[in-house]
Amino acid sequence: MSIKSIAQKQAIEQHARESEKTRVNVRSLNEECGIFGVWGCEDAAQLTYYGLHALQHRGQEGAGIVANNNGHLWQERGLGLLSDVFRDPERIKALVGKSAIGHVRYATAGSHGVENIQPLMVNFHDMQLALAHNGNLTNAMSLREQLEEDGSIFQSSSDSEILLHLIRRSKATTFVDKLKESLNTVRGGFAYLLLTPEGLYAALDPHAFRPFVVGQMPEGNYIVTSETAALDVIGARFVRDVQPGELLIINDDGLTIDTYTDKTTLNIDAMEYIYFARPDSTIYGVNVHKARKRMGAALAAEQPVPEADIVVGVPNSSLSAAAGFAEATGLPNELGLVKNQYIARTFIEPTQDKRERAVRMKLSAVKDVVRNKNVVLVDDSIVRGTTSMYIIRMLKEAGAKSVHVRIASPVFKFPSFYGIDMQTTDELMGANNTLDEMRTKIEADSLGFLSVKALVKAIDLPYDGKGTGLTTAYFDGHYPSPIYDYEASLSQFIAEGSVDFTEEPTTTYHPRQVASLRNEALQDDGTIHLDSQTIQGVEA
């Protein structure tokens, strides 16, 4: 390689690093991905495409589908939005078969290359296997190091690939036993879909950090996906939430619900209700839109703004909370900000004026609505604060007399390790500033957050077991499990006593602790079996 080409390569790499730094500064929180799987359905890949389209908000950096055509798996994947990856209709046509799994990705672990786009697919001498993963493994670095020392060769930098290596290296005799052994080795947040020529397998981590649901088509075919909104799009009926520690096996005989561990608890990530999930999704019996409205109403009670004239929500995820705030106070809920739904995803040069322009490309203030008004600006969270500052400036330039920011969640103080793209405290405004310092930096006239207690009450999870059934560690520092490879990163907070970790569960959470779930008939072997033609075992 010539000196010139080396210099060019270094310049490109430096530009990529700067672009990624800027992208971090202007984006909001990001979920790792959305997953969708179907067994035994005509045009399975097309159905998977529709399901993934409903999950596009969960990942916008890459998409892929693997189809099972009479025992042969075929993969199509690429970088970009789902519609970009499958812009050529021939790519969907190539995915022939009655079963498929799909994935939309946002990277929390691993680089942004095509090699990390899922589903990951491997061809062993005796079988094919494809995998899609939503979440983040907290012991991935240790496991990967050990696997590499033992001779494993990784094709990606994603933590998702680890499960494939564990399955292959297992000495168990059957595939299900290999899978169970591997699932008991990984830690952290995971919802897995695995496709083989013989069946579709779904597994949820022992804490149920990520949402995962089962649906059924009118013809009797089963669907497993990240959110109920994807079921609605394809006309499937909701059957049940996948429970922590469960292993679902779907084949031509129907759906069998097994478990890979009986050491489970319930710790649904509260950020799913606050921000990530679609408002038309339901998680463990709680509709996301209604939960967000209750958060807004609770915020109005805890953090009132006596001089307010109007309420304005930040599109799109904060509109439900803004409606709740306005309804509780009797204030007009105005469309003071409009979001450009068609903005292209571009890398922005790392200068302040261009970062601000990136926000203005996404949002516009409606001058005739906010002029001469004392505005309550309702948002779902403040992570880095950069976007909040630009929005406040925009409203004031549009003529707002004052902007009072109200956040429908507690202060984000600690990192997430279970599948949200926020694994250090360096970027967290709430971890490094007092409330007044935060208010000053974002240039708000006042700033208020929802309390953890009010958040839990607003979500109103119909749960009567130990704890709240929710993960609120990012706000209160109480992590519901050890964080393994990441523990050293919180050494300062551990020394201060501001964070703590619950040991892995030693007892069994039972689904009957959630009122929205119904009794299900157990088989003699401890599993639950649902017929492939009719929904059995679940009360309508």
TrEMBL record:
Binds 1 Mg(2+) ion per subunit. One of its GO terms (molecular function) is amidophosphoribosyltransferase activity. Keywords: Glutamine amidotransferase, Glycosyltransferase, Magnesium, Metal-binding, Purine biosynthesis, Transferase. Mg(2+) binds at residues 317, 379-380. Its EC number is 2.4.2.14. It catalyses: 5-phospho-beta-D-ribosylamine + L-glutamate + diphosphate = 5-phospho-alpha-D-ribose 1-diphosphate + L-glutamine + H2O. It comes from the Bacteria. InterPro entries: GATase_2_dom, Ntn_hydrolases_N, PRTase-like, PRTase_dom, PurF, PurF_N. Pathway: Purine metabolism; IMP biosynthesis via de novo pathway; N(1)-(5-phospho-D-ribosyl)glycinamide from 5-phospho-alpha-D-ribose 1-diphosphate: step 1/2. Its cofactor is Mg(2+). GO terms for biological process: 'de novo' IMP biosynthetic process; purine nucleobase biosynthetic process. The active site is at 33 (nucleophile). The keyword Transferase applies. It is an enzyme of class 2 (transferase). Residues 33-253 form the Glutamine amidotransferase type-2 domain. In the C-terminal section; belongs to the purine/pyrimidine phosphoribosyltransferase family. HAMAP family: PurF. Catalyzes the formation of phosphoribosylamine from phosphoribosylpyrophosphate (PRPP) and glutamine. This is Amidophosphoribosyltransferase. The gene is purF.
